Amino acid sequence: MKHAWKSMTLTERDQFEKDGYLLIRGALSQEEVDFYTAAIDRVYETAAAERSKEGSLHLLSAVRNCPELVSMLDHPAVFGYVWSMLGWNAHVYHSHIDVHPRITERKPFWWHWHQDGGRQNREIETDPRPRLSVKLAFWLSDVSEPGRGNLTIVPGSHKTNWLPGPPKRDVEWPQPPGAIQVTVNPGDVLFFDRRIWHARSDNYSDFTRKVAFFGYTYRWITIRDEVADLPQQPWWDTVNPVQRQLLGHVGDGSGDHAWGHYPETTPLYGELSGRGLLDSSIPALIP
Hints:
Keywords: Dioxygenase, Oxidoreductase. By secondary structure, the protein is α+β, with helices and mostly antiparallel strands.
């Protein structure tokens, strides 16, 4: 299935602003699901040292560790949601591959609820905090029922700075009011605001949870992923200019830098301009 590049609709934008997330059903074809799943399975087999004692894998720097995922960075079925919110001066600052097989024994309680961004949520003074980043989650396994390691979210919580919780993370505490487990099929993609309060639930099912996450932010925010050595990788020559920008390597020496003062030398700006997608009603798309 081929998708033309397009921006999010006003209806989608309104829903995203209200709920803090959008679920894009069937964004990946079955062939893509099979391809990405096989790639992650190969990484899982070779990453024994990084697995937990239960066999789960949370591996940072998704493309560096699994180059086959590079086409997820700007996948045309969902990439429009990213640049519609952040504009063209963006990159991937944080990504990870998650594989969670069945847990055979109940784990001790732990309060996993959080907003993405780490210290941003302690050090930024505004209420609500600024969005700063958005995330795409590519689901590759059947998580269509609760109890399969579903991502749990509180819809509409992205404009709430603090979530009432326990005095310590290991103190038994009820789920936040309004929390839901997101149920998804292989090929579905979840697009969400980094501020939405969320937590991964434990997987006690016979299904292995497999998902790849990509967090996008402005290029003036430092990348967390390991990307410095990417130009030396044997597959680097196959990466297109927009993907290189998203992986933190951009510019031909003619002016581009992370502050975005030279849009004409920023690949995503050029791509959107060439496709007639620089909608001036969206501030982040204005040169």
